User: Which sequence fits this backbone?
């Protein structure tokens, strides 16, 4: 009997994907796999428990144990929009390890929360993951966008993860992401200033530790971005960036 493994990230897309998987295949051989970065928003844990109960399949929670910042210090490399040692180590390798230990590629299908607006990602991902079969149910018709998925979630009686209501594009790493852009970090500063200052401080510590002029954002530290915002300077609010912890590829950090 085919096993169905949904990468259940805490995002709306993975909940919707899981809904489609159990509609098509039932819950008996479906598993929801959550990989914890130990830096998640507190409301994510409430959400994944409620969302998994709504889907009706078992939720498996795994964690490597380190946070993204601990990975950056250990690897002596600050993640950025191009290279993400955090998700490589804490998400993709953990999920690969779990799959190898618990499933057989001959009778397993893995599902990601990519939707039709980013179909190119599953087109690039699927061949690289062979012999494991990767599918993205939200790329199939009927086509629904994120707003419709959130309405679907509310109709199911589940409160959306609070980060969406705070204006974040995803529910990963507590509103932080090394792939995020200026607009995303400006929202983090506006909505969760203490959390922003924590990441600003960690970036400064890593720069001192490495003795290098590195930054998450292109040509701008989080400290410089905050100072620019506070001085009412112009920043690129449309630079949001994109996070795809499960759908990007491993690249060697320098
Ligand atoms: S959400 Fe961003 S910072 Fe967090 S693990 Fe994924 S790529 Fe890294």
Assistant:
């Amino acid at each position: 009997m085919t096993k169905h493994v949904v990468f259940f990230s805490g995002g709306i897309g993975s909940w919707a994907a899981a809904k489609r998987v159990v509609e098509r295949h039932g819950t008996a051989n479906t598993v929801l796999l959550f990989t914890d970065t130990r830096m998640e928003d507190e409301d994510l844990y409430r959400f994944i428990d409620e969302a998994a109960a709504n889907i009706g399949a078992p939720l498996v929670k795994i964690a490597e144990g380190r946070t993204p910042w601990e990975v950056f210090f250990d690897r002596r490399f600050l993640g950025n929009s191009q290279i993400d040692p955090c998700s490589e180590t804490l998400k993709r390798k953990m999920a690969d390890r779990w799959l190898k230990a618990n499933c057989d590629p001959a009778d397993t299908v893995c599902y990601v929360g990519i939707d039709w607006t980013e179909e190119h990602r599953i087109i690039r991902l699927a061949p690289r993951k062979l012999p494991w079969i990767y599918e993205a149910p939200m790329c199939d018709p009927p086509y629904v966008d994120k707003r419709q998925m959130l309405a679907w979630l509310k109709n199911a009686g589940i409160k959306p993860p609070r980060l969406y209501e705070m204006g974040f594009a995803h529910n990963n790493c507590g509103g932080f992401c090394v792939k995020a852009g200026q607009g995303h970090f400006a929202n983090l500063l506006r909505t969760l200033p203490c959390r922003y200052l924590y990441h600003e401080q960690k970036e400064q510590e890593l720069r001192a530790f490495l003795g290098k002029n590195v930054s998450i954002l292109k040509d701008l530290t989080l400290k410089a971005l905050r100072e620019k915002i506070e001085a009412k300077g112009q920043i690129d609010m449309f630079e949001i960036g994109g996070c795809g912890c499960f759908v990007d590829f491993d690249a060697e950090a320098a």
The beta strands are 3-7, 30-36, 59-63, 108-111, 133-135.
